[in-house]
Design a protein that fits this description.
The chain is of the alpha/beta class. It is built from seven helices and ten strands. The protein has a six-stranded mixed beta sheet, sandwiched between helices. Strands 5-4-7-6 form a four-stranded mixed beta sheet. Helix 1 crosses helix 7.
């Protein structure tokens, strides 16, 4: 299921030689953004994925510099004060941010650059980059989202409650974005993303 709103007509095609473009993928925690991003990059290695920095601890199997740049709060705050982030936000007690220089360099070199970020950061990017193309990933329902978060077995009851409360508020913001895609089936959601990026 996908709802496509009016968007700019210069969405690049795979063969495009036009200037680079910044693409934002966002949605509530547990909606499957990370899994969709991994599969999208497997299918389209021409995309440049911007690795975010975070102060949260690595989850099992996560690799520093590949999934995230894992750093301390003090180091993150130092980078914020130096203007090193394109956007940053605090979510669920941890900081997340997008390194500025690498993203701008890749866009200027003609790449499609994809950011997988939280809602607050996505809004910051939209405010500072009018040409950004933004995709909001929705869960099929809040009960399904809760099942996915619980299925990860990584959060306390308190953290789960906090994530679900945030998710309810975030879902209200979906219509701010160019495209909304419901992740009820991984393959269908991936095809919907591809159809919006590579028309």
């Amino acid at each position: 299921m996908m709802q496509v709103l009016p968007i700019q007509t210069d969405v690049p095609t795979k063969e495009s030689t036009s200037p680079g473009r910044l693409i934002v993928l966002t949605g509530p925690s547990g909606v499957g953004k990370g899994t969709l991003m991994q599969e999208l990059l497997k299918r389209h290695p021409e995309l440049y994925y911007s690795v975010s920095a975070t102060t949260r601890s690595p989850r099992p199997g996560e690799i520093n510099g590949e999934n995230y740049y894992f750093t301390s709060r003090s180091k993150f705050e130092q980078l914020v004060s130096q203007g090193e982030f394109l956007e940053w936000a605090e979510f669920a007690g941890n900081y997340y941010g997008t390194p500025r220089e690498a993203v701008l360099n890749q866009v200027q070199s003609g790449k499609l650059v994809v950011l997988e970020i939280e809602l607050k950061g996505a809004r910051q990017i939209r405010a500072s980059f009018p040409g950004v193309f933004s995709i909001f990933i929705l869960p099929p329902s809040l009960s399904e989202l809760e099942s996915r978060i619980r299925g990860r077995a990584q959060d306390s009851e308190e953290a789960i409650a906090r994530r679900l409360k945030s998710a309810e508020a975030e879902i209200q913001a979906a219509e701010e974005f160019d495209v909304q895609i419901v992740n009820d089936d991984l393959e269908n959601a991936l095809q919907s993303i591809e159809s919006t990026l590579f028309r």
